[in-house]
Design brief:
The protein is of the alpha/beta class and about 325 residues long. The chain is about 40% helix and about 15% strand. Helix 7 links the parallel strand 8 and strand 9. It is globular, with a radius of gyration of 20 Å.
Length: about 325
Amino acid sequence: MKVIDIINQAQETGKPRFSFELLPPLKGDGLDKTFGAIDRLMPFGPAFINVTCHREEVKYTERADGLIEKHIMRRRPGTLGVSAAIKQKYGVEVVPHLICGGQSRYDIEDTLIDMDFLGIQNVLALRGDAMPGAHRFMPHSEGHAHADQLVRQIVAMNGGQFIDGEPNTNHRTDFCIGVAGYPEKHVESPNSLTDLGYLKQKVDAGAEYIATQICYDADTIIRFRDRCAEIGINVPILPGIKPFATKTQLTVLPQTFAVDLPQRLVNKVMACRDNDDVKKVGVEWAIDQGEALLRAGFPVLHFYTMTKTEQVEEIVGCLVV
């Protein structure tokens, strides 16, 4: 089932749904931890499960002769394999992330063909981050510089058009395409209006829904939805929620995700004695935020779990009552 159909069904019935985002295991690890996390979420009937995709990294090692050798590596490979395993084991819809970074258009086409073979109909199309340590994003020499270009490639495949230019008259893919949106603007955008223009390009290219970056202020997400509607972005928007868990996140989250933390949340976290108290604050804040977003009419809430689902389990348990 396509994500857009799941969203529309939730809107029609008035019954909210919840989706969850997981990381692939570190290279060499098995799926036990991933499955354990999903087991805790299955009682809530996940609308779908996203599986993230990660850029390659550069690793430098010293050789016996004293020279430095450069290696390209991935710490979390296996997005598509993990997605297929989840779909097979649980029968839940999966949404692999597909990024421009580090991939040619031919690599992307091969991945999409594999997804089609596996019966995976949903994809989240992202530009992706710059390589760790790089100052800016550099596209593959035969790849895409922006997510709207990736969306267009997927749409072309849905129409039977492949990179070699030969139309496929026997079979066409049928992907539902989601993209990312930034209630507080992308860190690289000069301002929020320009950022909304970039988002509209992705929607105009064929994206069917938007999943937002983490945001800790329900009012900011609601205003973001309103601003999107004002410029003609009318696809569904799924708010992204991540519960606070540690005091170090007061600095890590703004640095990593370029989010603005409400002062009231900062005060609550700073007053905590330890991270156990922080987790309680994180759960309470996310419940209040989720309730406000559901009252505002958002049909699906998207939780960034990082494969740690204990807090999310408690939050969703309260929201479904």
